[in-house]
Protein 1
Amino acid sequence: FSSVSQNYKPVKPVNVNTTKIELPVFEAQFTGKLRFVEGHGWAHDWLINWQTTQDTIRWQLDSDTVRNFTVYMKYTCPESDLGSVLSVSILDQQIHSTITKGFDPPLLPSPDRVLRKEAYEKEWARIKLGTLQVPKGTHWIALVPDTVKHKQVAEVAGIELIYD
């Protein structure tokens, strides 16, 4: 086992040398009270229970060069939970955004005859968080709440990086 697993890396950095990168939460590492809505983190799952400033969602990125990206978050948030401030950061760069637009759609209809255990799909809103410079090398990008205004920050499906 030691010889075949010596080069194993439990976290594989996402290569960002392209114009658009989607980073879903089922490929993220997260801490605190966050959890998947279904429980296992399958392909259509998302994170819920984002309730404290200790709850962090992060991805490891790898870049061959310095690149600027506009960062968007895919989320849902009922009107009653609006107002939380979150930050997205990489190294010493940090941008702050307030969730000001509610979006809380129902789950999408499914032709299932028997209810399934996996997470059903839903639509997601996008909020522009700002622009960050991804340095050359391997680094973490993280979402962290600065303040949790009400019950939760939002439900999160992931982030998107669009090359500027």
Note: The longest strand covers residues 137-147.
Protein 2
Amino acid sequence: GTSTSYTKVASFSYYAPYVLGDANGDKLVTTLDAVAILKHVVGNEIISDASLLKGADANEDGNVTTLDAVTILKYIVGNGSLGKQ
């Protein structure tokens, strides 16, 4: 038998900048972001980029759901804010 051992030699982390409410990566918060979130929720177009997922969590509850799309739409019409409520 052959034995192989591995030693961890390095680790890294990085900060991925995001715009809260921006789910499509255009650095703006528009109805297109709400649509992107809804497509993600139903499984039509999954948001896989970590920074876009962070931005898509518009109410900062740790999940991307239809409530994030509603939060964005309320924000756009001036009837709410982004982030933790």
Note: Residues 12 and 48 are 20 Å apart (CA to CA).
Protein 3
Amino acid sequence: LHIEGWRSSYSGLVDQAFLDGLDKAAREKDWAGWLAGGAEAPIARGEDDTPVGFIAFDRLKTPPPGMSPIRPLYTAEILALYILPASWRAGLGRQLMAAAASRLLEKKHKSLCLWVLEKNTRGVAFYKALGGERCGKKTVEIGGKSLTDLCYGWRDTAILLPRP
């Protein structure tokens, strides 16, 4: 699911040979580390109970540049959010973000941030629509190509919860 999410989200943004070469075993090793370290990853399922997306979150791993370690603005991070294209625009992204925010609030995390490729215009627009504020940027290398990663943050995760 993670590999398919990358391939659909980053097609045209990241070298296609890199996307085609994504390795399931390497992803499984990454996931084993994340989950062993305390990350959670609820899965969204389609009508036939097939997994169609997921969100992974944990305490803050990659703070925005310049953030004080003593008084951090953000204490949690969305590590990944991917939905298969056939399920795009069905509200699953909002539901997954709300589920993550709710669970993080239970764990006393009142703020969160995430990183998204600048050229991922669909993702950037989605996070802006959810009230995310740009709070940093950095250069990352993916598949031998330098790309800009933007950080979006929510200082109050309650904004992500469903409204009655």
Note: The longest strand covers residues 133-142.
Protein 4
Amino acid sequence: MRAALLAALALLLAGCGFQLRGTADLPFDTLFIPGAGSGIGLDLKRNIQSGTRTRVVDDPKLAQAVLQFTEDVREKHILSLSGTGRVREYQLRQRVSFRVHDGKTSEYLPVSQIVLMRDFTFNDTEVLAKEAEEAQLYREMQYDMVQQILRRLSAATPPKPAVQ
């Protein structure tokens, strides 16, 4: 009975199209990421090196493609106030714009923007805990941002050669 249940579960799981995430195929062999020493650039560099066949290089002249961040903004907005005028909720936003080009005139990916938002409650008697929660939310947003950028990079199309 147990074996039949496991077999049925395995067939059901295989039939739904589930598969483990493998390596992403990027349409370029080498990539230069300016500012890859910190923040989202560093996380993106690590994910590309560990999850793709593309090499991240330190010299744009050696790169087949250049990922250029045009905007990376974090914002914190008040979402709601209590009756006494104290903040009860905040909304965190992170906005990143980027483009991928060949270092000359052709583009793999035109300027793209990703915006992520997270809401969290605030209690001024638990300031340290709420600051830690805010930092954790920003880390999670950055992780999500890197995953979305990787998906967009894998969907990028190689530039067409110039017609002469």
Note: The chain has a mean pLDDT of 87.
